[in-house]
Amino acid sequence: MARILGIDPGIRRTGYGLIDDEGAGQRLVDAGVIAPSPDDELLARLLEIERSVEALLDRWRPDALAVENVFYHKNPQSTLTLGRAQAAVLLCAGRRGLPLALYSPSEVKQALTGSGRAAKEQVQFMVERILGRSFGGETQDLTDALAVALCHAGRRRSPLSLAALERG
């Protein structure tokens, strides 16, 4: 068994999803969103993200960290800001020597749906099917983070567990 923490970094909302990859399937352990105050300055937000990720690592002791990689935005400032949020997360893994994997949004979509261009709703559907739980009213950041963790589970043991898909 491996415990995987998936992170979908963002300066406003950083989603996290923790799963246990049990060989025959994956089990949800914890998931949520880190949401620094929108009134805080950039550095305060980054520190809140870092402290929150450190607390998750202390509490759950994952075996690996999987993070959605920064992708290009039309607005270069958005790309830069997203990269800063990602860096706050990466530093947490680096300090602990925790194995780290970065996945592009299209890699995550491909791993879960079979299409790198899948809609977010399709990804959420597969996350729900694999984990056997509905996330309907919850934030997309949370399900995106779980998708990153599930992508990593599948990459560890390619292809993604058919037993988990057949359960749904």
Short description:
The chain is an alpha/beta fold and 168 residues long. 50% of the residues lie in helices and 20% in strands.
Write a structural description.
This protein has a single domain, classed as 2-Layer Sandwich (Nucleotidyltransferase, domain 5). The protein contains six helices and five strands; from the N terminus they run E-E-E-H-E-H-E-H-H-H-H. The chain has helices at residues 42-60, 76-96, 105-113, 120-131, 140-156, 162-167; strands at 2-8, 14-21, 26-34, 64-68, 100-103. It has a five-stranded mixed beta sheet. A hairpin with a 4-residue loop joins strand 2 and strand 3. Helix 1 packs parallel to helix 2 and helix 4 crosses helix 5. It is globular, with a radius of gyration of 15 Å. Residues 159-168 have low confidence and may be disordered.
Topology (SSEs and partners):
Elements: E1 2-8, E2 14-21, E3 26-34, H1 42-60, E4 64-68, H2 76-96, E5 100-103, H3 105-113, H4 120-131, H5 140-156, H6 162-167
Parallel strand pairs: 1-4, 4-5
Antiparallel strand pairs: 1-2, 2-3
Helix pairs in contact: 1-2, 3-5, 4-5
